[in-house]
């Protein structure tokens, strides 16, 4: 009988998924990703955070975690095209595998999307293609929707038009106001983001038309 090799010892080696997270506000999604990476088995790590606002509260999450940050404020650039280039340059400093737009309130231009094709993802507080744009929660309530939620999608040149990666549904409670509904959506969104960014970091992401495959 041929001798058999002993099984390889178990280990926790992970595939490196370097993230750059883009924020404009409090950074609750960023905080969720930073918490997730405390687990050595989580396959992604936040390498840098870029904001369009120097007063974005989420920058403090990054600083406390020892993650470097950059601010690319539109007022510091001559025009939109220069800002787009500045964003691409700031992101590139951190050599990301994936760019995560998490509460980032500006449309990303060609310099970013062409440099990281199908590698920029965004969260949106509605079940796309319903209620795109900046007031998704308000629009869902005004429409009388009974179910809304959050979408993680690949960013393309349109506004919330990219291929869908994942969605989570959130029922609308009777008499609920915009702030309360948005807060419940954010809770579901954070869990979805952490799960799917981990999946992408571990297994990769491919896009064929509007079909997204992870792993």
From TrEMBL:
* Raises pKa of active site His, annotated site positions: 160
The residues the record assigns to binding N(1)-(5-phospho-beta-D-ribosyl)glycinamide are: 27-29
Active site positions:
124
Give the EC class as a word. Answer: transferase
Q: In which pathway does it act?
A: Purine metabolism; IMP biosynthesis via de novo pathway; N(2)-formyl-N(1)-(5-phospho-D-ribosyl)glycinamide from N(1)-(5-phospho-D-ribosyl)glycinamide (10-formyl THF route): step 1/1
Function noted in UniProt: Catalyzes the transfer of a formyl group from 10-formyltetrahydrofolate to 5-phospho-ribosyl-glycinamide (GAR), producing 5-phospho-ribosyl-N-formylglycinamide (FGAR) and tetrahydrofolate.
Q: What is this protein called?
A: Phosphoribosylglycinamide formyltransferase
């Amino acid at each position: 009988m041929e001798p058999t090799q002993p099984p390889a010892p178990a280990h926790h080696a992970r595939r490196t998924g370097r993230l750059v997270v883009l924020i404009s506000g409090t950074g609750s999604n960023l905080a969720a990703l930073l918490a997730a990476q405390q687990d050595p088995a989580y396959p992604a790590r936040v390498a840098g955070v870029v904001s369009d606002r120097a007063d974005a509260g989420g920058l403090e999450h990054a600083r406390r975690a020892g993650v470097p940050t950059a601010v690319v404020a539109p007022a510091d650039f001559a025009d939109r095209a220069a800002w787009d280039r500045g964003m691409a340059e700031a992101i590139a400093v951190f050599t990301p595998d994936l760019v995560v737009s998490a509460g980032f309130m500006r449309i990303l231009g060609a310099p970013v999307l062409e440099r990281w094709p199908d590698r920029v993802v965004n969260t949106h507080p509605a079940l796309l293609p319903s209620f795109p744009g900046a007031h998704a929660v308000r629009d869902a309530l005004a429409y009388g929707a009974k179910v809304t939620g959050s979408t993680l999608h690949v960013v393309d040149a349109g506004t919330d038009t990219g291929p869908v990666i994942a969605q989570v549904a959130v029922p609308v409670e009777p008499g609920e106001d915009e702030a309360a509904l948005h807060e419940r959506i954010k809770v579901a969104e954070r869990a979805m983001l952490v799960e799917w960014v981990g999946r992408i970091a571990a297994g990769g992401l491919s896009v064929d038309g509007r079909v997204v495959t992870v792993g």
